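Tokens as discussed.
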């Protein structure tokens, strides 16, 4: 996952963005990647080599669950859905991220 030409995201951010994306509705991996790219205005592009291992880790950790469904194009795809544990993790990670952003802003303005 990159930030265009600006570099890479801070480690762990991808999972937080996936959780936030799945908070909206269950979706398949390609839909998650597309939604993140759309909402970020193209700044974040998630490649399958990062997305699929992250989804697998999150499923093993109980943050998401999955099931095979037909897509809008009538193809089979694995759809991911946020679990209660995933919602709690998203809340905690969002709060931590906001504290970090605030601390960075204070340092930059000092």
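Sequence:
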């Amino acid at each position: 996952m990159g930030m265009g030409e600006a570099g890479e995201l801070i480690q762990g951010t991808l999972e937080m963005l996936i959780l936030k994306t799945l908070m909206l509705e269950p979706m398949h991996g390609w839909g998650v990647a597309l939604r993140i790219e759309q909402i970020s205005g193209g700044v974040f592009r998630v490649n399958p080599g990062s997305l699929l291992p992250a989804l697998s880790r999150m499923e093993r950790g109980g943050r998401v669950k999955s099931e095979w469904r037909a897509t809008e194009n009538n193809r089979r795809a694995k759809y991911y859905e946020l679990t209660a544990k995933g919602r709690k993790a998203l809340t905690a990670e969002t709060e931590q991220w906001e504290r970090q952003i605030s601390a960075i802003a204070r340092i930059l303005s000092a």
